[in-house]
Recover the amino acids of this structure.
């Protein structure tokens, strides 16, 4: 009989399990951002238009987010360790295909395939973490490391991607996934216990309608940048997306084993966490996408310099994330979440003021310090709120929803911000001035998203988290040593 992953493993083995989970999760997050510093080179080599370039990122995040729930369900039905290994194999093979891509269509197709692998690895990794570490003293630092990986993976991906794009090629960032993925595939069976399979079946209709619905919605938003909001293809795509998503929700209500159990939204804390994460990631993916272009096209940085320019954010992000267990014990998740989103909002508003004559230090680096601090504080509380008080039967689905909100928020958010940037009048200024104007408009829209994220956090997550805290038992009143207990009772 296979050994389950529900019991707390020995300290040495638990460290190995956490390391495998975090390295694998870091690898898929790395590719979510490693491509940013190579965007100018990719656009020139593959001859993408400004809006066509968006699909290099959105092909990955859309498939990633759309299939996450199915990937989570696959882990429950077929065994989380087995599915984790399969996902790593698909992701590594797709990375190789991206590195070898001879054309723009090949590149986008391989990015979509990479999203399939990521959609399996991400929920499996969080489910394995939840199953391997008991709630409280064991799980809190593990989730903190997981949250830190989410934030640092995005920031460090820019540094690594910039270095490789400058010294070798933008393709090199994808080749490095192959040996890393192979190593994790070999180590996983040795350290991660096999989890039992859960009887059931796949909700194929739910997965298909969710993925196609979100894809149509994003296509419609991006299409509006070129064709306008009233163009037939824009209206048709948005309408189809709305219909498909409505069918998805109706299917989930009727399905015996839905890919997204609607009961997960009965908790105000979890519902608020999913909404807040979508808004937060929509703003942050736009920050990475547009800031890398500002650094290269306006300030004249090369890819390596652009990647290194994110180091201030990476350092404070890591410091904030590592302080999470101590801060959580003192202040609670609610306070950290509210503070983290508020600090991120302040940094985004500051950064949105960039102009063609902005300097790196005052216009970019200092706002990044606020953004990194806020992200380091916000990610772990958002993750904890998304899986708060779920049953073991719903652990996979809840983990999938956390990552679905992360990736779909990135896809939809980036589409909205690209549309906001494209709608900005460029006048008769230089290309540098036009790019600066686009970046400022996009980050202003990102600031609005963060303001909505803060409102959702304060209205939904924070009150629910505070209400769920166990009430403190008042200290017992001391009795005189010679007074019978019955004498003190009313």
């Amino acid at each position: 009989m296979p050994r389950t992953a529900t019991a707390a493993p020995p300290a040495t083995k638990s460290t190995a399990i956490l390391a495998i989970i975090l390295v694998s999760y870091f690898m898929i997050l790395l590719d979510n951002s490693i491509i940013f510093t190579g965007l100018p080179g990719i656009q020139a080599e593959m001859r993408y238009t400004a809006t066509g370039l968006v699909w290099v990122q959105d092909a990955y995040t859309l498939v990633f987010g759309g299939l996450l729930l199915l990937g989570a369900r696959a882990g429950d039905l077929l065994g989380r360790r087995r599915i984790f290994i399969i996902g790593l194999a698909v992701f590594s093979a797709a990375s190789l295909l991206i590195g070898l891509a001879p054309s723009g269509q090949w590149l986008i197709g391989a990015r979509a395939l990479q999203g399939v692998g990521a959609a399996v690895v991400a929920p499996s990794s969080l489910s394995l973490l939840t199953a391997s570490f008991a709630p409280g003293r064991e799980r809190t630092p593990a989730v903190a490391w997981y949250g830190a990986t989410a934030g640092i993976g995005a920031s460090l991906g820019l540094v690594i991607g910039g270095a490789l794009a400058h010294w070798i090629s933008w393709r090199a960032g994808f080749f490095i996934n192959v040996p890393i993925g192979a190593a994790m595939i070999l180590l996983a069976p040795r350290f991660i216990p096999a989890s039992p399979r859960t009887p059931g079946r796949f909700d194929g209709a739910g997965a298909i309608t969710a993925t196609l619905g979100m894809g149509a919605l994003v296509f419609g938003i991006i299409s509006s940048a070129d064709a306008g909001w009233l163009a037939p293809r824009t209206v048709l795509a948005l309408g189809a997306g709305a219909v498909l998503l409505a069918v998805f929700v109706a299917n989930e209500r009727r399905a015996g084993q839905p890919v997204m159990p609607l009961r997960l939204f009965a908790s105000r804390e979890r519902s608020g966490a999913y909404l807040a994460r979508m808004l937060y990631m929509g703003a942050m993916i736009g920050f990475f996408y547009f800031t890398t272009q500002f650094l290269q096209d306006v300030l004249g940085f090369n890819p390596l310099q652009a990647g290194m320019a994110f180091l201030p954010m990476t350092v404070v992000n890591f410091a904030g994330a590592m302080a999470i267990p101590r801060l959580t014990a003192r202040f609670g998740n609610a306070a950290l979440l509210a503070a983290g989103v508020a600090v991120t909002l302040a940094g985004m508003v500051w950064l949105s003021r960039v102009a063609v004559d902005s300097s790196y230090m005052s216009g970019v680096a200092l706002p990044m310090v606020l953004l990194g601090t806020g992200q380091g504080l916000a990610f772990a509380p958002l993750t904890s709120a998304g899986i708060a008080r779920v049953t073991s039967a719903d652990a996979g689905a809840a983990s999938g929803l956390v990552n679905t909100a992360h990736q779909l928020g990135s896809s939809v958010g980036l589409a909205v911000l690209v549309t906001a940037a494209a709608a900005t009048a460029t006048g008769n200024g230089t290309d540098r001035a036009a790019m600066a104007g686009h970046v400022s408009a996009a980050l202003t829209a990102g600031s609005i998203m963060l303001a909505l994220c803060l409102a959702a956090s304060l209205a939904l997550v924070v009150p629910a988290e505070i209400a769920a805290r166990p009430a403190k038992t008042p200290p017992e009143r001391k009795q005189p040593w010679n007074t019978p207990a019955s004498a003190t009772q009313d």
In short: Residues 431-467 form the longest helix (37 residues). The two ends are 58 Å apart (CA to CA).
